[in-house]
Design a protein that fits this description.
heterodimer; A: 355 residues; mainly alpha; ABC transporter involved in vitamin B12 uptake, BtuC; 2 strands; 73% helix; 1% strand; globular; B: 243 residues; alpha/beta; Rossmann fold; 6-stranded mixed β-sheet; 4-stranded antiparallel β-sheet; disordered N terminus
């Protein structure tokens, strides 16, 4: 009898999960470490255009845009597990709101860019309410549908949007540095000539800071709980609809603004390319590669994926799509948690929510 | 067949009146009335498929009743969402545990808290300590044994100190040592004046634990009363062992 009991006790003891590695000492200071890195990185990025080629600046702008898109996609879809194909739709709407405000000369460009984000944020609030009741693949498909719907509306509302002809945006007139200019004058010219780059820098920084705030807050945890088991989350009193819509609206602001800045950068937009699903896929694959539901993952993914794909495209434009697609397949199959969870599994990184 | 008359008393915390729920061709709950008294342990028993889980889902808002009233502390909660009902002071566990698998044990507790961060942390640590689970605080919930998951689910519902606790088959699939731990927690709740509503197939435990038992069969309440009465009831025997 007693041996039976002790046997059961042994079973219970052996049931105990393996002890977790303790958090490293630097973990609580990660926020400050990030702040220092961010300040240094931003200073470098501010300085960067002063002696970089136009090509390098454009490439950096694309990296920053991808950071904004992937990081913001991650708010709802990474943390909350609601995969959205709607980023292309918001990107397109933002592009058109910004472009048309400038085309009809209604506002200055900074106001136009900000209003684009406001527009897509409000739009997300409106369509989030009905669609966020759908779970899993239904939500993904609904957002795909909305992207298509937006494209059709913009294409057919010819009198406002110029339809399929597209919109040409007023170009940024370059300034020259005059002889004997102070460094401050030079800097102002540099900012003026690279204003889209600097705007994208601001957007990416705001997105990253917001990612940290969400990732380390109750909202972030609530989203993770929804990802893991929405029924349980709701039964434990988490207001899931409110949480999802908040995350969705926040995540929609960034593609809107990125679209408007991108429209200025490329100078011409038309519905087919601007509402293309590839914008969603870019955001999704970047976030997955880096690590969904983490703060750093989408940032890391954006830097690696943009630079690698640019490099591959340069050397072999024909193979580009194959390699790019293959890379994503490998990531999804063999490291579904992306870089971050790979490094965590190797023991390089702790399982911190600050990552 | 007439419903057993259960007059709500002043101490009735949950009053279920003529509640029905149909799924397609199956009448899962049929005109059921149950009155749950405050501060005691009430059991709901019945064969598999008798409507116990559906009844729990109706009470906690996961399903909406087709007909009938569910009054919790005098307020009709039928039609409210699960989050709203939980916030009124009702906590539950699930037949198969539903923890947040890729979150740590500690996060599983703090995420449902409605207090500030510091208070939530203190509460979670205190609860973990109460069941000797502190060493698991940073473990992912999906890595826990089933029994441990049940314990954490118990603690999770305690985070916001609900007045009514619903436990859906808490002892199913749990080894005797874990069962003892679960029972300890249950007794702690009873001593703290909580009202508990639970279902289980472990007849011996139910008879010992519950002051009042309702018996469901084909979605209907076929008997209710003290365990001693239930044991003698012919309809209960029929429902369980056939005619």
């Amino acid at each position: 009898m007693s041996s039976q009991v002790s046997q059961i006790r042994n079973e219970v003891d052996s049931e105990q999960a393996s002890p977790t590695r303790p958090m490293p000492k630097w973990e609580p200071y990660l926020g400050w470490i990030y702040l220092v890195i961010l300040v240094i990185a931003v200073a470098a990025m501010i300085w960067f255009p002063s002696n970089a080629s136009a090509y390098s600046v454009t490439l950096a702008l694309i990296v920053l845009m991808t950071i904004s898109l992937a990081t913001s996609w991650n708010f709802l879809s990474g943390f909350g597990g609601y995969t959205s194909f709607g980023h292309a739709g918001f990107f397109g709407i933002g592009s058109y709101v910004g472009a048309l405000l400038l085309y009809y000369e209604r506002t200055g460009w900074i106001t136009a860019v900000i209003l684009s984000g406001v527009a897509t944020g409000v739009l997300a609030l409106i369509i989030g309410y009905p669609t966020l009741r759908l779970r899993g693949p239904y939500f993904a498909v609904a957002m795909l549908g909305f992207t298509e719907l937006f494209r059709v509306i913009v294409t057919s509302w010819d009198s406002l949007t110029l339809g399929g002809r597209g919109v040409f945006l007023p170009i940024v007139r370059f300034q020259q540095v005059e002889d004997g200019a102070t460094w401050w004058d030079r800097f102002q010219v540099q900012v003026h000539n690279n204003q889209n780059y600097y705007a994208m820098l601001v957007l990416a920084v705001v997105a990253m800071i917001l990612a940290y705030v969400i990732g380390t807050s109750r909202l972030g945890l609530e989203l993770l709980a929804i990802r893991d088991d929405e029924v349980a989350a709701q039964s434990m009193g988490i207001r899931v609809v409110r949480v999802k819509i908040t995350a969705f609206a926040l995540s929609a602001v960034f593609p809107g603004i990125a679209g408007a800045i991108n429209a200025r950068q490329v100078g011409f937009i038309e519905p087919l390319t601007i509402f293309a699903v590839i914008w969603s896929i870019r955001a999704i694959s970047t976030a997955i590669l880096g690590g969904q539901g983490t703060i750093l993952g989408p940032i890391l993914g954006a830097i690696v994926l943009t630079l690698v794909s640019e490099r591959v495209w340069e050397s072999d434009p024909n193979l580009y799509q194959v390699i790019f697609g293959g890379l994503i397949v490998i990531v999804v199959l063999f490291m579904p948690g992306g870089f971050i969870s790979l490094l965590q599994n190797w023991g390089v990184l702790p399982r911190s929510r600050r990552l | 067949m007439s419903q057993p008359a259960t007059m709500p008393t002043t101490s009735t915390i949950l009053d279920i009146r003529n509640v029905s729920k149909r799924f397609g061709g199956i009448q899962a709950v049929n005109d059921a009335s149950l009155s749950i008294s405050e501060g005691i342990v009430t059991g709901v028993i019945g064969p598999n498929g008798s409507g116990k889980s559906t009844l729990f889902n109706l009470i906690t808002g996961l399903d909406r009743p087709d007909a009938g009233d569910i009054r919790f502390q005098g307020r009709n909660v039928a039609g409210l969402g699960p989050d709203a009902i939980n916030r009124l002071g009702m906590g539950r566990t699930f037949q198969l545990t539903r923890l947040f698998g890729r979150m740590t044990v500690f996060e599983n507790l703090t995420v449902v808290s409605r207090s500030g961060k510091g208070e939530a942390t203190d509460r979670a640590l205190e609860l973990l300590d109460s069941l000797d689970l502190t060493r698991l605080r940073d473990e992912y919930a999906e890595n826990l044994s089933y029994g441990q998951q049940k314990l954490v689910e118990f603690l999770r519902l305690s985070m916001n100190d609900p007045s009514l606790i619903l436990l859906d088959e808490p002892f199913a699939g749990v080894n005797p040592v874990m069962e003892q731990k679960l029972l300890e927690q249950l007794h702690a709740w009873v001593n703290a004046g909580k009202t508990i509503l639970l279902t289980d197939h472990e007849m011996a435990i139910m008879m010992e634990l519950c002051q009042e038992i309702f018996v469901l069969d084909y979605g209907e309440v076929i008997a209710h009363g003290a365990p001693a009465q239930i044991r003698e009831d012919e309809r209960v025997m029929e429902a369980y062992f056939g005619r």
